[in-house]
């Protein structure tokens, strides 16, 4: 075969490979990195899995903050509900958790295609998956937090929180934990001191509120 033909074929195969790599599912490499890390540093057995978007991912030293509990952090920065559904096995089920703490839905707000109803339905889909595979494992759902950066979506956020609250109140072994009201002033304004410069992610002061509210709902286990 002519060498130029061979070079053309190789070049074509490389191009096709590059095209497919561009369509690799978002977070695939991050998930792989997590699993590789855990082959060296084994996670605790039957932990409380905190899973969700960047408000979970950026919770520094969460294991020390909840030192009386077996906690692991499986947050993905920027994740929407659909991403947690896609990687539910790797982020949740693989760990055989004793309890699951969810913070999801906030990143979905900014997309016009996502209504409060659709965010609710997607979240309900994830909760149904959890119930099907782990019918007895307690689930704690953290309400979507108010932040100055998301003020444009405040009504959608409130509606989503209300839908989630009403649904979870009808389910067994699920708890709706409301962080919304504690992160506002007495007259409903934003507490800017709780947020970083991007007005979206929390400072330590914001996480202290979450920690205080969540602790009564977590399962204590021998470490």
Automatic annotation (TrEMBL):
Pfam families, A to Z: Lipase_GDSL_2
SGNH hydrolase-type esterase domain segment(s): 64-209
Gene3D superfamilies attached to this UniProt entry: SGNH hydrolase
Domain of life of the organism encoding this protein: Bacteria
Gene Ontology molecular function, alphabetical: phosphatidylcholine lysophospholipase activity
Protein name (Swiss-Prot/TrEMBL): SGNH hydrolase-type esterase domain-containing protein
Source organism (scientific name): Polaribacter gangjinensis
Lineage, top ranks: Bacteria, Pseudomonadati, Bacteroidota, Flavobacteriia, Flavobacteriales
């Amino acid at each position: 075969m002519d060498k130029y033909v061979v070079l053309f074929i190789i070049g074509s195969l490389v191009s096709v490979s590059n095209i497919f790599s561009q369509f690799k599912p978002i977070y695939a490499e991050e998930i792989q990195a997590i699993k590789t890390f855990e082959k060296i540093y084994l996670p605790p057995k039957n932990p409380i899995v905190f899973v969700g978007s960047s408000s979970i991912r950026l919770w520094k030293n969460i294991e020390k903050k909840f030192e009386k509990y077996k906690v692991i952090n499986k947050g993905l920065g920027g994740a929407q509900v659909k991403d947690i559904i896609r990687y539910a096995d790797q982020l949740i089920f693989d760990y055989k958790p004793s309890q699951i703490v969810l913070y999801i839905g906030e990143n979905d707000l900014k997309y016009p295609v996502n209504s409060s109803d659709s965010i609710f339905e997607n979240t309900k889909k994830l909760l149904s998956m959890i119930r099907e595979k782990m019918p007895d494992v307690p689930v704690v759902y953290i309400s979507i937090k108010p932040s100055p950066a998301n003020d444009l979506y405040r009504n959608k956020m409130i509606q989503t929180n209300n839908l989630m609250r009403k649904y979870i109140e009808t389910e067994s072994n699920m708890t709706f934990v409301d962080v919304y009201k504690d992160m506002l002033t007495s007259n409903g304004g934003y507490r800017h001191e709780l947020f970083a410069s991007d007005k979206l992610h929390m400072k330590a002061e914001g996480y202290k509120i979450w920690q205080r509210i969540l602790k009564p709902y977590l399962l204590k286990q021998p470490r």
